Amino acid sequence: MMICPYCGNNVVSTRLICECGLNLEPLRVLRGRSNIFYNRGLRMAQIRNFTAAIPVLEKSLELNKHNSDARNLLGLIYYETGDIVNALSCWLVSRHLDPEDNEADYFLEKIKKDTQELDSMNQAVKKYNLALGEARQHNFDLAIIQLKRALTINRKMLKAYQLLALIYIENGENVKAYKLINAGLKIDVGNTALLKYRAELTGSTVEGEGEEEITDTSDAGDKPIAAKFSYKEDKPSILPFVNLILGVILGIICSQWLIVPTVKKNAKQEYESSKIDYSAELAAKSATIQQLQETITNQEKEISKLEGMLGGDSNSVSVNVNSESYTNFFEAWSIYRDLTAREYTDDELIALAYKLWKIDEKEIAQEYASNILKSMRSEIYPLASKKVYEAGKNLYENEMYDEAVMWLNAACDMDTTYDNPYYYLGKSYQAMGKYEEAIESYNKVTEVVPNSTLKDMVAEKISECRAAIS
Q: Helix, strand, coil: what percent of the chain each, to 5?
């Protein structure tokens, strides 16, 4: 069956004309040629000549964009050479154009389930991009470190092989470059960049380059052949130099009379404008700083009162103060005040967020202290929630499940719109044998994000927990 491009009806492949009257013979010819190019690309891919197969498959898709076999094979080639972005693009487009009985569904589902591999490839791409930036600035040592890390994560990343080999050649480390080139050619035997680098190292020419027609010169003997040309060199003339000098003089005169005054005027106006803007900005910043200082002063007064209450000051009003909760609160406030006054590290931010999370808000009796706690959380939680989740995830991957549960619970409370912390919290509970808590956490994933990409995996995990309970 084939689809008529004019009316969209399904037409038996043996018919030459559609019911709407369109001649389908040219379409059938294009589909046949598209299949020919696909078969060529397939043969090249089977011998791992991916560089030659890619343009052939692209030509096949130019003739028939619905050739899902060609598009899926192109995605596999990109995946095999470490280009995960282009691979996913090919499979997604293939599934969109041909949603029924498409092998792209299998590839996408496999990658979707193996999130760890996808994260690893993403890390490899990030390290390659960092290395590329360092190489452009001629920081080759840093670039080599990043590229080695990228290849450790993804051994099939051809772009990393190419760039690292080029850096080795630039540094004169030809032995390392040659070994790296051969390793890359095992992935793609026809990679033109690696073949060119190897040719430069060995002194040979790449196949197809530098080939010139050789003619028989046996009759010419050893006599040189003198070429005859009709071109004769002109005699030197002084007129171009005179015209050049006159042009320079006229240009200087015009710039002094026309351009320079305008530039000075614009520069003066720009300076005055920037001066006004700077004064306004400085005044605004001064007002903000003064306001912040007043806020901090007021907070310090209230904190001093609370500390007096905690210490049993006879002049203070007696309140029901939980010593441990207020001690944690004072410590968190002191750390918060210190961090907001300087540059801080991610570890310091995570530690402060975790300390704020451990404070029980119900035990903070004073309203002003409760407001300060809410203010600190509203500022710190959005900055630290993702980092706290990463810390919990790392604890889970290191099989430290008790600690992972605490950190992942904190991440869930800090950002109630993010589904990943609930998923890994469920996995931690499941690993500990707490299946009821695991099911509750898994259910939270779809409650937080109804269309979560983890939906299928969550359903599978819930089934495993229920089977373990029964």
A: 75, 0, 25
Within 10 Å of residue 346's Cβ, how many Cβ atoms? 12
- Cα(421)–Cα(447) distance, rounded to whole angstroms? 13
SS3 state of residue 160: helix
| Residue 366 CA to its chain's centroid (Å) | 46
User: Which H or E run contains 11?
Assistant: strand 10-11
Q: What is the pLDDT of residues 120-160, one digit of tens each?
A: 888 888 888 888 888 888 888 888 888 888 888 888 888 88
Is the entire prediction scored with pTM above 0.85? no
Which residues 6+ apart lie within 8 Å of 424 measured at CB?
389, 392, 393, 396, 404, 408
pLDDT in tens, 224-251: 333 333 334 445 556 766 777 877 787 7
CA dist., res. 369 & res. 361, Å (int): 10
Question: Which residue is listed with tokens 């498959």?
Answer: 57
Strand, helix or coil at 3?
strand
Coil, strand or helix at 343? coil
Is 457:114 a contact under the CB 8 Å cutoff?
no
Sign of CA dihedral 399, 405, 408, 412: positive
Q: Looking at the predicted structure, is the pLDDT value of residue 113 above 60?
A: yes
Q: Compute the distance between CA of residue 279 and CA of residue 391 in angstroms, rounded to an integer.
A: 44
